[in-house]
Amino acid sequence: MKTKVKGIEIRNNIIKLRFSYQKKRYFKSLKLEANNKNLKLAEKILSEIKYDIATDNFNIKHHFPDLENEESISTDNRLDDLIKIYFQQKEPEIRATTLISYKSIISNFISQYNLYKEPNELTMIEITKIRIDMLKKYKSRTFNLHCIVINNFFTWLYDNDLISKRLKLKTIKNTEKTPTPFCLNELNKILGHASNLLN
Q1: What are 60-91's pLDDT values in tens digits?
Q2: SS3 per-residue string spanning 52-73
Q3: What is the pLDDT along the chain (199 residues), one digit of tens a residue?
Q4: How far is CA 8 from the centre of its chain?
Q5: Separation between Cα atoms, residue 71 and residue 89, nearest integer Å
Q6: Which strand ranges, in their side-by-side order, compose the sheet holding 71-74?
Q7: Which residues, other chains included, contact 162 with Cβ-Cβ below 8 Å and sequence gap of 6+?
Q8: Element (DSSP H or E) covering residue 26
Q9: What is residue 18's three-state secondary structure?
Q10: Contact between residue 168 and residue 151 where contact means Cβ atoms under 8 Å apart
């Protein structure tokens, strides 16, 4: 099920609201299953929130008593802060072992290139220079994996209005050859040789 209403998202079949208040972006789960009835309710709740914000009557704790446990994204957050929120949101969607690998890739990307800055300070020129350096460090398969993981993070930044333009690390053609399995004849020769060594 999909919704075309801006500010209402469906993740894992659960309705979630997205809105901004006092330079922070909030993602609030309504803990409601995504169906037509609940989507109409979500529209009503979001409309009330927007009205309260517009009329300066918004009390966030009144709407969300469990605010201290809620994810928020500030426009002042640096990239190293945002990756924590990014992976909090991705955790239900990714296997634990894969999540550890992805965290390592993005964290190393930020530390290696000293990207301790706000996302809107990133430029495509800077990303292009980083890509050139990455090409020197990694083989094609590893390079492409890093690009895909980092590009997913860039997409999340764009979708949450944290960058005004899409950023992307362009992947390359995989030049690494996959090892060719032994044919039956070669395997028999190897086994025969090993047998002679043991006798």
Answers
A1: 777 777 655 555 666 678 899 999 989 988 88
A2: HHHCCCCCHHHHCCCHHHCEEE
A3: 677 788 888 877 888 888 888 777 777 778 889 999 999 999 999 999 999 999 988 887 777 776 555 556 666 788 999 999 899 888 888 889 999 999 999 999 999 999 999 888 999 999 999 999 999 999 999 999 999 999 999 999 887 778 878 899 999 987 766 556 666 676 666 666 666 666 5
A4: 19
A5: 9
A6: 8-11, 14-21, 24-33, 71-74
A7: 73, 75, 77, 82, 119, 120
A8: strand 24-33
A9: strand
A10: yes
Spatial distance between the Cα atoms of 151 and 6, rounded to a whole number of angstroms: 23
Contacts within 8 Å (CB) and 24+ apart, 81-86? 82/119, 82/157, 82/162, 83/107, 83/110, 83/153, 86/153, 86/156
Which tokens in the block code for residue 187?
Answer: 């395997």
DSSP letters for 109-134? HHHHTT--S-GGG--HHHHHHHHHHH
Q: Tell me the two tokens of residue 37.
A: 């009835």
Task: Give the global pTM.
Answer: 0.62
CB atoms within 10 A of CB 106: 21
In the three-class reduction of DSSP (H, G, I as helix; E, B as strand; rest coil), residue 36 is classed as helix
- The angle at the Cα of 104, spanning 136 to 9, to the nearest 5 degrees, equals 115
Three-class DSSP category at 15: strand
Pair of tokens at residue 38: 């609940």
Q: 3-state DSSP call for residue 100?
A: helix
